[in-house]
Amino acid sequence: MGLLDRLDNPFETGGIILGTLEDVLNWGRSKSDWYLHFGLACCAIEFMSMNASHFDFMRFGIIPRATPRQADFIMITGTVTLKMAERIKVLWEQMAEPKYCISVGSCANSGGPYWQYGYHVLKGVDRIIPVHVYVPGCPPRPEAMEEGMMKLQSLIDQQAIFRKRQRIAEEEALLKNKI
Amino acid sequence: MTTTKFVDIDFSRIESDRMRLNVGPQHPSTHGVLRLEVELDGEVVTNVIPHIGYLHRCFEKIAENMNYQQVIPYVDRMDYISSMNNELPYVMAVEKLMGIKVPEKVEYIRVIMAELNRIANHQIAVATFGLDAGAFTPFLYLFRDREYILWIFEKATGGRLLFNYFWVGGLANDVYPTFKEDVLNIVKQVRKTNKEIEELLIYNKIFIDRTANVGVLPADVAINYGCSGPVLRGSGVPFDLRKAEPYSIYDRFDFEIPVGKGEVGTVGDCWDRNIVRMREMEQSCRIIEQAIAQMPDSGDVQSAIPKKVRPPKGEVYFRCENPKGELGFYVISDGKDKPYRVKGRAPSFVNLSVLPEISRGYLFADLIVILGSIDIVLGEVDR
Lengths: 179, 383
Known about the structure:
The structure holds 2 protein chains of 2 kinds. Chain A is mostly helical.
């Protein structure tokens, strides 16, 4: 008997699931992330492939949004040049909290092949905005990007919502004692 | 000539405030990081100024600091949708400078790979053009097929998008044993899907209404701006470097040059530029079939690769027909193992320059369609 069948008559079998509110909220947040529709370079083509039929990115519950105000996370897919860097910073600041960033590809991670002689290439997007998940590759396969998405989901799942500062302080204290 | 009713009005006699609108660099339909400064009179575009440079990745400076072989991966990343076609002119330019004659088998594999990548490029072009016009289904169909082509590339070269497969004097490695059957299956699949796309998208009434008679580019304007590729051929000029100046082994194949004929509107409108891409896929299929039939089975693909690539002093310009147009590389050698200078003549950059000319007088919504019909890649525009 499936879960739904049991829920048909909630009084018979209970129909109650116990859990913390934080888990439920995080479960909802991590399964309906909306991303900023935004591509930079080569990785954006693989990103398009990921959105298309074979890899079907939408099964993660994501929807592309054209404006940063509605986006939960941003995927930096490609080379960040110095001219583009300030625009990316503005986009990041326009996004509403809580917000996340996935850096896709060598260029966004560290400058990639343009690290040495690319005078107009930012050597890693983490120099201007915080990055939560790094996906390596030049360009990464769509499967790798999906892996990055799953990593972001598990990161959101573990996030603290209530008593945030207190809990972070407790964890830090624990860590200090261990060291 | 039938035109949109908005075009017939003489707007110069009406005094009105102009609005300046900024499109991009983050915009879903700018095909990358292009910024357009649009001057609007109501909803009619009076001027467009493209601002580029958001993806300038210093190709020429990097090429000065790299060996001749090390430049090839950076050439890949110029027009990242059709990497094989990008490698071909660079590799052939260096070979011309050094006077290398590559083996027959290498020539055939290069042609097959380049044509497969041309199909993949046109599939993206038609798919995103459909997206710009509001059709989502063709995008899914074409990307499904493109994935099959990428599987062949992955099997043969190891990369899905950027390959570093063509080397100076040969190839990185030979193709795998079942390569021929796989390619012929792809050709079949591409033809099948193209038929579906013609029904779904190309001859769809809504699509024709959106694209016919929009963004008309007359042949003389196209030639004056130096346009090439489907943008030029869409205006009815049958110029294709594969026919006009056959390089590699293209003179052995029988194929036609599709041109825009103004089937549903004016010659040189967005619909014509798009149909040229659809017809070119069919011609690429024909070339691939002939190449597969003629391709020799035996042969060492690395026999002509020189131990050290050090061309004699001199300069060379070599151009090839890229899916986007004429891609040329101007290589200067000073006799050392690093090029003195490598300059790329990018078709996207030249084709983009015609955008202000052909979008004046159309609605703002048409500007997006016109931009999509030019099929630019910003990696190549900015280099």
